[in-house]
Amino acid sequence: MITVALAKGALLKDSVRRFAKAGLDFSTLLDPDNRLLMVPSTCGSARALLVRNADVPVYVAYGQAQLGVVGYDVLREHQQPVAQLLDLGFGGCRMAVAVKASSGYRRALDLPAHCRVASKFTRCAEAFFSSLDLPVDLIHLTGSVELGPLTGVSEAIVDLVATGRTLQDNGLVAIEDLFHSTARLIGHPLALRLDDGQLQSLVEKLKAVGPGATPGPTPAATSPVGNLAAGVLAAGASA
Q: May I ask the CATH class of domain 2-91+182-234?
């Protein structure tokens, strides 16, 4: 039986829809009365695990799920050894540096050296500012990072931006993007290597029913056809 790790929240509905188009119905997960965290497909050939976004690559990396759907931002931040198979195209957003609109800063290099930057994605932020050769003091926050500049905890933040409405409503503005993030299909490298054809067939169906393509900017990303296991990815590699 194929086990798929799906993320709670914004990616869930589109993930369930994509798998349904590929022949696996996990629609029980969308039932507001559902409390099950492990749900079989209606055909009985697969099951879905409902987990937090950041935990998807963990379940895949440890082999408890052969496949998973997770945002590219999570792969970059947590760097689990998984194979990245498809860019599924939905859940689009960008990782960006944001500051108070009244700050006068217009790009990341305008920030003073050793200023404080708050983020849930401190690994991504550290890599970005290191690439600019701009030393900053990173503060890890787990939520509502927009409060950082508003309260004086930080001069800037690094966070995901979708529409920009939250930033605007809180008097903030994005000044520079780190990268674009979309939902990615990932796989367990050993499971892919030992695949008897079931996983490859499912990946090909998922590609055929949507705008998915092999991820472009990520080194060592694997093709969804042929040798699926060839693209074992240290997911935090720079793009």
A: alpha beta
